[in-house]
What we know:
By secondary structure, the protein is α+β, with helices and mostly antiparallel strands. The chain contains 9 helices and 6 strands; from the N terminus they run H-E-H-H-E-E-H-H-E-H-H-E-E-H-H.
Amino acid sequence: xxxxxxKAATEGLLFASGEEGLSKKQLAKVLEVDxxxxxxxxxxxxxxxxxxxxxxxxxxxxxxxxxTTKPEHAHYFEKLVETPSSSRLSQAALETLAIIAYxxxxxxxxxxxxxxxxxxxxxxxxxxxxxxEEAGRKETSGRPVLFVTxxxxxxxxxxxxxxxxPPLPEDLIDENMEMEADxxxxxxxxxxxx
Length: 194
């Protein structure tokens, strides 16, 4: 199959796979090509999306490729989310999602210890929206369920990995304090060097 047909087929496959996306191995199997050819096809599609007036692009999350919207169109999507017909996450669900994202894997009890309130409802909402999922059980008394964020979470927030999560405010404060301490000691050293 020539490259243009493979690109079109790949675009259709990624669209059909929806939020789950497809791995390189899956694409290679369906297209009946090797994984190196998949790299070429995906790179060609990415190039097309970047150099033409298109509203979508290909994002890679872990080993999966997804069709997603472009970040530069974010303000249109924000307006769409703000429309009355859209359903947004509640403040409780957003708090719970942030706690899970930064502390995963985490149990419901640990979430509730951080939030200080029952989190059954927000956890169920996040599971139903496929933003979090169960990831086994903690090896402690009662073996509580552990929760982690999903690939859809990464896709929804436009992240390729959890390392791209913004730093927590406490981390920023710690970094600033370290920088100030370093500057203090450098200044102290300069003053005592003569």
